[in-house]
Design brief:
Two copies of one chain form a homodimer. Chain A is built from 15 helices and 14 strands. By secondary structure, chain A is of the alpha/beta class. In chain A, the strands form three sheets. Chain A has an eight-stranded mixed sheet, with helices on both faces. In chain A, strands 10-11-14-13 form a four-stranded antiparallel sheet. The longest helix of chain A has 24 residues, at about 295-315. The radius of gyration of chain A is 21 Å and the shape is globular. The interface between A and B is large, with 87 and 87 residues.
Chain lengths: ~400, ~400
Amino acid sequence: MPDVHYRFSPAFQAPTGSAIRELFKYLSLPGMISFAGGYPPPEFFDREGLRLAAERAFAEAPLDCLQYGATEGLPVLREQLAGLMLRRGASVCADDIVVTTGSQQGLDLLIRVLLEPGQSVLVERPTYPAALQALRMAGAQVLSAATDAEGLDTDALAAQLAALPRGQVRLLYCVPTFANPTGACLPLARRLQVLALAARHDLLIIEDDPYGALRFSGAEVPSLLALSREVEGSVGRVMHLASLSKVLAPGLRVGWMVAPAAVRQRCLIAKQTVDLCTSPWAQRIAAHYLASGALQQALPVLAAGYREKCQRMLAGLEPLESLLSVSPPAGGMFIWARCRAGIDAQTLFNAAVAENLVFVPGAPFHPDQPDPSSLRLSFAAPSLEQIDRGVERLRRAFERCGIVPN
Amino acid sequence: MPDVHYRFSPAFQAPTGSAIRELFKYLSLPGMISFAGGYPPPEFFDREGLRLAAERAFAEAPLDCLQYGATEGLPVLREQLAGLMLRRGASVCADDIVVTTGSQQGLDLLIRVLLEPGQSVLVERPTYPAALQALRMAGAQVLSAATDAEGLDTDALAAQLAALPRGQVRLLYCVPTFANPTGACLPLARRLQVLALAARHDLLIIEDDPYGALRFSGAEVPSLLALSREVEGSVGRVMHLASLSKVLAPGLRVGWMVAPAAVRQRCLIAKQTVDLCTSPWAQRIAAHYLASGALQQALPVLAAGYREKCQRMLAGLEPLESLLSVSPPAGGMFIWARCRAGIDAQTLFNAAVAENLVFVPGAPFHPDQPDPSSLRLSFAAPSLEQIDRGVERLRRAFERCGIVPN
């Protein structure tokens, strides 16, 4: 073994990886059912549509698939994504869009460009752990904003911002539509309030929106980006991140960012040093698929599929309601739950693993003030039959902890 | 327009993008011939082989193409890359390898993990501009090491390191094999000396090796990674970056890193926040292609093709030798040249653009002490016929500057 004493940058001296990725080791165990990751299920992939899109993209422009592409993304894809944003209510043109290697890269680029180490960033409590990890590795001071069943508690946020010295917080990261992990969808009035707060307190907002297209009940609520045109002083304050991972295929690693020119241009300079460009081959496959209109046809089917899975899980959990309080979502991939029974989610998790079930205990989602009773259950990846069996295993896990439903 | 005053992180307050990417605007002008980018030419892509690999990869495992993959990369690809490294003389197993989104991402991950802002990093003078850009954006203090026609001047490096306080420089970034921009290949004795210096001065080395497989004359020289087993105290000091971009297709965005476990594990944690994983679809296409043995068959053909192009350009430049001194490379994509005629490369560039030719003036390759007479000519992308016409245009560009060959 080498006798080298490695010295690492401050963030990497004793780094802890993703707690969710740590769960992966359980997934390969035989018979394990997973309520853990927010993965599209195999049966929801449009395999034939994507196979065709890939075949056509390559047949049409093999050299454009194989060569380097512009850092901002291929025009054919950016046009399609602008159309998609328009259908989602945001008036955006191709030039406003940067294609990213998954929306995770969009967040990384924004952090590089906007964040100074030591600076304060507000996030929802609880929030997406990889955002938390990215912010902390960049040296951010993470402050948490309270949420309730509808997402950000905007009155509390107003009070919190008013109490902080002006300029201390410059950035708010949030997942307003079908949040990870809570599934909450921020109501219109609160969205307008968030934008007004941004204008009043000179905040920029990173709106992370991977799940927004997966609504299965209730009425559409426009994105913060779309609404910023309606709230004075908030135009230019929303950086919007989106992705094809949850609606088409994570394996493409195609996401996008909508941001004001000054921010976008800097993100492009950062992207030159990060990966030069997102795979033009993957971009062309995505562009062909979108141009075929298949996504617009698939979305209602996908949403209906997730509705069915969500309802099946909620129905299964009903007999456990004395043990577990749940927040029924109107879209997305997650049900957020709390153990009522006085046991913590990690204890329940250990018992669940013994029953061949995994979920994600809530602690890693909390930037601070962790709620040890909380857990995230995803209905996305398991089949209906696995959902039934998994819920039964969850019941037995409670039993193992000495707890039975009333 | 929004009335938002954006505040950016220090590196992005007045960022300058890639000077090479700035040349792109000329490339779309009608009739322009480019000696600028290090792009594989259209005719060198194995279109049919890649089409087949893509078809088979998807047919065999569509779900693995479409779903998220492990952050370290797919085992099927890592096995193939380990075999490729073995053929290149480095005894490496699949577990030593992290798949990256192009080798550019490998550099970015290493910088995050290894570099503290303000720390000193040594690079060759001249060097790859995107490495320079990445290091500077990360807040590195970039120190330059002198090179000659054979690459790093290791005696000068020894003296430079001896004169610096021990521990001030922890990192050396270099492209020892067919360097960008000089095309130089560091001889064996110098490689051993670099490794000995690394051991003596407690340096880590980032060995960037995108071009190493494109040798078209002379004998193979092992990589620093391979040689580190032979130099006491240097094992574990070399982080090796490589890529399929120059030998197969940039559009895949598939590169890889070989690094010691402590570094690799931290790079994986960084990669979780950067893009989660490199496109599993692209990885499977690459794995299928490599498993078919097609790359091993293609490499000698590719090398012969680049040799022909390089010789054609050198032959064309011969009548200009009183104006331009050139360094003939033994592989890679670049010829480094210096104007003898007392004019600077930027003046020559402006004249060349008027003649419908672009190349890259040497200034952006220099971390300091820019040599205004230097320029980089790439023979990779233009056809033989374009090389002939481009060289003629270069002659006319000199004429425009009032200079004719003796």
